[in-house]
Amino acid sequence: MxxxxxxxxxxxxITKQFPGVLANDRVSFAVRPGEIHALLGENGAGKSTLVxxxxxxxxxxxxxxxxxxxxxxIANPKQxxxxxxxxxxxxxxxxxxxxxxxxIALGMDTSTGSRDLEARIxxxxxxxxxxxxxxxxxxxxxxxxxxxxxxxxxxLLNPKLLIMDEPTSVLTPQEVEALFETLxxxxxxxxxxxxxxxxxxEIKALCDTATxxxxxxxxxxxxxxxxxxxxxxxxxxxxxxxxxxxxENRSFGEPRLVVERLSTRAEDEFGVxxxxxxxxxxxxxxxxxxxxxxxGQNALLDALSGEVLGTDANAIILDGKPVGLTDVNxxxxxxxxxxxxxxxxxxxxxxFTLADNVVLTARDRLKMASGGLIDxxxxxxxxxxxxxxxxxxxxxxxxxxxxxxxxxLQKFIMGREILQRPCxxxxxxxxxxxxxxxxxxxxxAIVDLAAEGSAIVLISQDxxxxxxxxxxxxxxxxxxxxxxxxxxxxxxxxxGLLMGGVHGTxxxxxxxxxxxxxxxx
Amino acid sequence: MQYRLxxxxxxxxxxxxxxxxxxxxxxxxxxxxIFSLIGYDGVGAVRxxxxxxxxxxxxxxxxxxxxxxxxxxxxxxxxxxxxxxxNIGAEGQYVIGGLAxxxxxxxxxxxxxxxxxxxMVLAGILGGMAWASIPALLxxxxxxxxxxxxxxxxxxxxxxxxxxxxxxxxxxxGFGFPQTVMFTSSQSLPRVIPGTxxxxxxxxxxxxxxxxWLVMSRSLFGFQIRVVxxxxxxxxxxxxxxxxxxxxxxxxxxxxxxxxxxxxAAGPFGRMVPQFPTNYGFTAIIVAFLGRLNPLGxxxxxxxxxxxxxxxxxxxxxxxxxxxxxxxxxxxxxFFLLASDILVRYRLRRVVxxxxxxxx
Lengths: 521, 360
Prior knowledge:
The complex is a heterodimer.
Chain A: E1 9-18, E2 21-31, E3 36-41, H1 47-54, E4 62-67, E5 70-72, H2 77-83, E6 85-88, H3 100-106, H4 114-127, H5 143-155, E7 161-165, H6 173-188, E8 192-197, H7 200-206, E9 209-214, E10 217-222, H8 229-237, E11 255-264, E12 274-282, E13 286-290, H9 297-305, E14 316-318, E15 321-322, H10 328-334, E16 336-339, H11 354-362, E17 369-370, E18 373-374, H12 376-389, H13 406-418, E19 424-428, H14 436-451, E20 455-459, H15 463-469, E21 472-477, E22 480-481, E23 485-486, H16 492-500
Parallel strand pairs in A: 3-8, 3-9, 6-7, 7-8, 13-20, 13-21, 16-19, 19-20
Antiparallel strand pairs in A: 1-2, 1-4, 4-5, 9-10, 11-12, 11-14, 14-15, 17-18, 21-22, 21-23
Chain B: E1 2-7, H1 13-37, H2 42-55, H3 60-82, H4 90-107, H5 116-142, H6 146-166, H7 201-218, H8 220-230, H9 232-237, H10 242-269, H11 280-290, H12 295-318, H13 324-340, H14 342-345, E2 346-351
Antiparallel strand pairs in B: 1-2
Helix pairs in contact in B: 1-2, 1-13, 2-12, 3-7, 3-8, 3-10, 3-11, 3-12, 4-5, 4-6, 4-10, 4-11, 5-6, 5-10, 7-8, 7-12, 11-12, 11-13, 12-13
């Protein structure tokens, strides 16, 4: 890294205004050639907006982008790619029904003969040890393999700057390690990498420099290797980090939720079915379910909440009562509450007021609907209680749910269920897309509810969250649930193997430990 | 200089109420231009259609009578549309409702008494519900789009009507005209304002719209309809069955269309004739949207649309505007309403291209 070389990318005073929010406020930082530069910040801090401007998807309202020392206007992604900027998005844009090769060929800006292109694809894959069969159909690939397609696609253009947007959120720990190897190799060859994440330990392990954004502004630039995860987190949220107060050596009571070979059918051809899942959660226990996204976690939540019914009443036993054939309302009356992953349109109706959203799930347990009429006063009172107890920032009980920030809406939803005093609470991804302050409050509320004797099932893709909160952990893969491990005994490696180890059907096992892929030659 | 549509931070309430007004104004202006261009007195047409019925007190009773079925059907459709159940076949449910009531009337010719009319009304409601339950069954069992089935069943209903009045129900003393006998006085809706044609169905339509408004805003049923329409997955999570909601929505809209049908048969028509289907069922679709799918709004929209219907009749005789002209006005109104609806969620903003700091 020669200090005399011009910066690969330099932003100065980048400002972007959206209606009602200043997404980026005079953001300036620079990336040197061959540097792995982290862009760190909470959800809503303005990271995505910033990289969209670097990649030409949006234009800044003010400020300047310099590329290799020259001021440039990046009008569109095609121009960005011509300059040598590649990007791997968090959400892939792949055609499920086409092969790897066809997907890459479709994404090329210039037409290349298919034989030449395939040769180049194989060359890139060999150079960076990206194992992938170009002729496999995308729908049969794991998420990690799909990400490799996007990386190959970006590398074919010989990028000088590669932007990675939250690349590890869908990977197993072993796949993450393999990805880091690739990125380090790229950096050693002089390619700069702009790595967007909020996972601090990854940034410590990978990055040379970190620029921390908060509310659209750069609040710090630091060397992550000199910082602790905690110090970076505190810079990121702009406040001290609260520890989760969890009693040591807790004892558990009787099983409150017993699931015995629960199966449901997939709702559509791309869905994953719940396949003979068994587990038992005791009073006071937090039972974690880990797994890579899309392995049936949503289907499991629907099956437990009663949104999708199985065929056997005894598959789910709630406090001794078989409820496998009981619908959502019936289960809720018996004390089973659930919070699905998707806030907008599933856990809450974005167009409704908070008071109406309370009626959605609390009407029976809290008697808000008698004789077919809604008791609006009772709904408002309870809404007010949720807002004040969970410190929800909203204009009042009549605020529209969709106007709340993600973290506030999630606190509201969690509060709405927790204050109903459920005996079993099933939550999926409770802190997904939530700022750190709200996440800490939600975690504490879950721990407190368990301490009062409820049984909690916590479905999450965030291993750190699971290892911090849970007493027991099991891994979901292809709709099946592994045996339960005690959190004290389980290692990240073991959980990671369970997450990715048995991907695919028995005759085509693709991902091997270490993230390599076995492909039939 | 360039204009751009920009999403509002939250929907504009002002525009929510202003856009139906804008739609009516745009319809009048564009209508005047179109009719002038094809050789009619365009300004006169707009005046006769939109102003004469309001300014001439003699026309007010017509407004009430025409508005009543539009409001009844419009309220039912609005409830269904709120739940994303797209019943397009209210016209057919209206016809079958009228036929079912007529059936009761023909069977009770030899009797008299105050029990006959309620029985006819009940039969009308059940008839409309029965016709709407066919799309409901097909939708919930086989996932067939209710848009197609309800629409196609309208044409079936009209053929049933033709068959009955040309065949088994034809008045033997009617000189071969395809129509039933006149209803007796126990089979007809009483007039509520002496000396006018305003029948009991008119105040009932307004009353039912008010009740529907209360139900939609205060009851769990209304809540269910709104949740299913706004977020089907949240509805399922909240414990509301989608299939049950489809049934309820279709039964309510079909029942109200059937009620409108028997009110028309036992009111203005006084018998069943092949001219019974007068497109109320289709016009009410526009009424439902013009009224913002809100029963109170539907009352105003029904009255506004009645103005256009009555005005169309006036314009036919005074300036010889063809009957189809009214249809054009109605269609334009829906078109402009849907088009101006974008301003509820978006606003126009002038953009100065490519310089830093766009105009606020």
